[in-house]
């Protein structure tokens, strides 16, 4: 789990710690082989980093978690609202949420400011990984994913545990008026001195979890920010687009 600098390759949500067959974690930027500006654990295939470095980083990340990299399902994300029910591992295209009820199959999303949400349905042994930027948040991708799990797996709110992961924080996510108008007042703040508007993506996505009916005691939020804790996480905005990608992954051991 640790590189030579004793920095963690990943952080595992304590919310899931009591489930012995569940693997869930989000990566940090530590313990990889990529040079600047992708240093060091860049897991993003769609960056200008050397693909061999990214593959090595992915191998290190998954190996540290005890996951076979050949058993992971990911997608090229497009900031949309399409949901993939993964039955096989592989690299897909066009999905921003992936779900599965297959054991020994892990679903993962890439992030570098957007919100990763990991969901576990303990009764039906189903999981989901969701990538929600502002577009996915406005499209209520979290709600859509939960409703799809309900239809496909019989998922009920009381059986779900959800982790809202590391993302850009409310003090850093400034938006223009065309984006601000898409958010309810409780999720945005106007600075009284500059009149600039800031949006809280983490809270907006958490509301979708609670609106579905997941008990608040079964929801956990990351205490980290990709901007404020940039020494540990990649931030596309803070690093002006020249940076790596984090990954959030979840699945059940067979």
TrEMBL record:
InterPro entries noted in UniProt: Cu_polyphenol_OxRdtase (IPR003730), Cu_polyphenol_OxRdtase_sf (IPR038371), Cytotoxic_necrot_fac-like_cat (IPR011324)
**Gene of origin?**
pgeF
Q: Catalysed reaction(s)?
A: adenosine + phosphate = alpha-D-ribose 1-phosphate + adenine; inosine + phosphate = alpha-D-ribose 1-phosphate + hypoxanthine; S-methyl-5'-thioadenosine + phosphate = 5-(methylsulfanyl)-alpha-D-ribose 1-phosphate + adenine; adenosine + H2O + H(+) = inosine + NH4(+)
Q: Which NCBIfam families match?
A: peptidoglycan editing factor PgeF
GO molecular function (one):
copper ion binding
At the top level, the lineage of the source is Bacteria
Record Pfam families: Cu-oxidase_4 (PF02578)
> Keyword Hydrolase, does the record have it?
yes
**What is this protein identified as?**
Purine nucleoside phosphorylase
Which keywords does this Swiss-Prot/TrEMBL entry list?
Hydrolase, Metal-binding, Transferase, Zinc
Q: What family does this belong to? A: Belongs to the purine nucleoside phosphorylase YfiH/LACC1 family.
